[in-house]
Design a protein that fits this description.
The chain is an alpha+beta fold and 140 residues long. It has one domain: SMI1/KNR4-like. The chain is 41% helix and 16% strand. A 4-stranded antiparallel beta sheet has the order 1-2-3-4. The two termini are 23 Å apart.
Amino acid sequence: MSDKNTVQKLIEQYGEENDFTGGASSIAIKQAGELTDTQFPAAYRWFIERYGSGGVLGINIIGIGKNNTYVVSKITKQLREQFDLPNNLIVIEDCDEFYYCLNTDDSKVYFWDNIDGMGEIVALDFFSFLEERIRDMSEN
């Protein structure tokens, strides 16, 4: 399993100015969770609190944008309404034809698409997911 220090170092290594929207307050994070009727896992809360939304090397982690724009809540609710995304999943990355979703019950990251639904486990936790995504993109 990865940790926040590893993820933070990778972000510092590959990050550029304006890659992220900027951290969100704990109140905004709580409100975003309430809008999706979930409580965000600790690792994801840490990311939003520190970075808000965004990413490096073409990765775009969905979170809370500038001016407390609850992007994660909006996209998650939209997919729940249109494609029956399960209530325990929140969308953390939109890859056009599929999504990476964080399971708020077990903190694992899953592959999900609107045709086949929930697929395989991609990572055991958010930090491992983000570390693997950054390392994969840095090799390409």
